[in-house]
UniProtKB/TrEMBL annotation:
GO terms for molecular function: dioxygenase activity. This is Gentisate 1,2-dioxygenase. Keywords: Dioxygenase, Oxidoreductase. It comes from Caballeronia humi. InterPro entries: Cupin_2, GDO-like, RmlC-like_jellyroll, RmlC_Cupin_sf. Residues 95-162, 263-329 form the Cupin type-2 domain. The keyword Oxidoreductase applies. The keyword Amino-acid biosynthesis does not apply.
Length: 348
């Protein structure tokens, strides 16, 4: 058969095979476009109701045992549009720990945080510092820090875990190490970071910390909520009302380099303006009653609910109460996007 009568398909196939043998290719008609005009996220907006989560947590508490090797008992907040993760970058899970249990020591390159939802009497050790975990506290386990948790109280305890696992995975930078001992040794000064940096106002003179690593590991509910209360008396931001970000007190950057954390309050009767931005958000409703409208879908929420907002989805928030503020904790991936020059936002 001469070249001239070869079908286009056969020629194309032959070319593809030749290129492939050199680890090269040209665009094929079956390929999707290289670029889209704006982000086309496969992630779907989602809503988890407190009553469902409570029932499911009790169920996994009865059915799943904690074992050595660094396993945790968690309910992962999944997304129907994604093969993995709560958002394209973040895994959020609810950890359920029973009195007397130990979640044994390990470390990983994924950055992590805990936000305490319910209960008291558990503590966590992070690189030798020990912190009691109480409702509303934010505790960090920056990348590659050792951490373990023990529950010494007498009621089940639950907290939100957030890790940038999807981001770290996409960069093929996953490392994990389990410890030989269930719990780490605690250093002579078990709360050094809080004593030095916890005010958020001062730092040690002649500080020798490496500023890229946040030296502060715990943000108490009391101090964070007092800051929010003060800021909530100011005029509202049109899109977020009052939202304060937890920060690294040495650099003024976000508390973790990739994951953003914020406490938000919506004043009574507030209905924010709609906007959209790159980056994904997971919300936990601490108190109040309201609604979030995401790309035309309305999620009616109450205390204990979770919601997730996909990248570039138009969203607005409503406080349904005319006398009580609503308070929400959010995690997002804005710090990662900003560092890469990918953060954008616009009013709807
Ligand atoms: O508590 O260390 O939900 O390593 C997922 C991975 C919790 C933890 C999670 C973890 C942890
Ligand atoms: Fe962990």
């Amino acid at each position: 058969m001469s070249e001239a009568v070869m079908s286009d398909t056969v020629q194309r196939q032959a070319l593809a095979e030749e290129l492939d043998s050199f680890n090269c290719r040209v665009a094929q008609p079956t390929d999707g476009p290289l670029f889209t005009r704006d982000p086309q996220s496969a992630m779907k907006a989602a809503h988890w109701k407190a009553s469902d989560l409570e029932r499911l947590l009790t169920k996994i508490g009865a059915k799943l045992k904690l074992e050595a090797g660094g396993q945790r008992r968690t309910l992962r907040l999944a997304n129907r549009g994604l093969p993995f993760g709560t958002t394209p970058t973040i895994w959020a899970s609810i950890q359920y720990i029973l009195p007397g249990e130990i979640a044994t020591a390990h470390r990983h390159t994924a950055s992590a945080l805990r936000f305490i939802m319910k209960g008291r009497g558990a503590d966590t050790i992070v690189d030798g510092e020990r912190y009691e975990m109480n409702e509303g506290d934010l505790v960090l386990t920056p990348a590659w820090t050792w951490h373990d948790h023990e529950h010494k109280g007498d009621e089940p305890m639950i907290w939100l875990d957030v890790l940038d696992i999807s981001l770290v995975r996409s960069m093929h930078a996953t490392f994990f190490e389990g410890s030989d001992v269930p719990r780490q040794a605690v250093s002579d000064i078990p709360d050094r970071s809080y004593r030095h940096y916890g005010s958020g106002l001062m730092r040690p003179l002649n500080d020798t910390s490496r500023p890229a690593l946040n030296p502060l590991l715990v943000y108490s509910a009391e101090r964070a909520q007092e800051a929010l209360r003060l800021a909530a008396a100011l005029p509202p931001d049109p899109f977020d009302d009052t939202a304060l970000e937890y920060l690294n007190p040495l650099t003024g950057d976000s508390a973790l380099p990739t994951i953003g954390t914020a406490l938000q309050s919506l004043r009574p009767g507030m209905h924010t303006k709609a906007h959209r931005h790159t980056g994904s958000v997971v919300y936990y409703v601490m108190r109040g009653q309201g609604a979030t409208i995401v790309d035309g879908t309305t999620f009616e929420w109450g205390a204990g609910d979770f919601m997730s907002i996909p990248p570039w989805a138009v969203h607005e928030h409503v406080n349904r109460s005319y006398d009580t503020p609503a308070m929400l904790f959010q995690v997002n991936d804005f710090p990662a996007l900003k560092k890469l020059g990918l953060y954008r936002e616009e009013a709807a």
